[in-house]
Amino acid sequence: MQLARVEGSMIATRKHPSLNGWRMLICQPLDAEGKAEGTPIIAIDPYGAGMHQKVIVSSDGLTARKFVGDDLSPVRQIIIAIVDETTEEQAA
């Protein structure tokens, strides 16, 4: 799982049939401080995340393929949560 920020959406005129009807979002991975880290990834979005919202992205391809209902789908990344807020716990 990876914390990320939605940076845009992607439109593909030609794609695997299992991705028809799915929103594909460009997500920028974030580090623990909320700063951009690494290269952006594309994830399908079953929850309707908006621009610049923080999300949790899973790279568990099996879960993503179950969402799209096709065991042979090439989908790999899926948004599994929209983050409302983050807090840092203090060590005892």
Question: What is this structure, in a nutshell?
Answer:
The protein has 92 residues and is mainly beta.
Q: What is the topology?
A:
Layout: E1 2-10, E2 23-29, E3 41-45, E4 54-58, H1 61-68, E5 78-82
Characterize the structure shown.
The protein is mostly beta strands and 92 residues long. It has one domain (2-82): OB fold (Dihydrolipoamide Acetyltransferase, E2P) (Beta Barrel). 9% of the residues lie in helices and 34% in strands. It has one helix at 61-68, and strands at residues 2-10, 23-29, 41-45, 54-58, 78-82. The longest helix is centred in the last third of the chain and has 8 residues, at 61-68. The chain is elongated. 17% of the residues are buried. The mean pLDDT is 93.
Number of strands: 5
Helix content: under 10%
Oligomer: single chain
Number of helices: 1
**What is the averaged pLDDT score?**
93
Short descriptors:
single chain; about 90 residues; mainly beta; about 10% helix
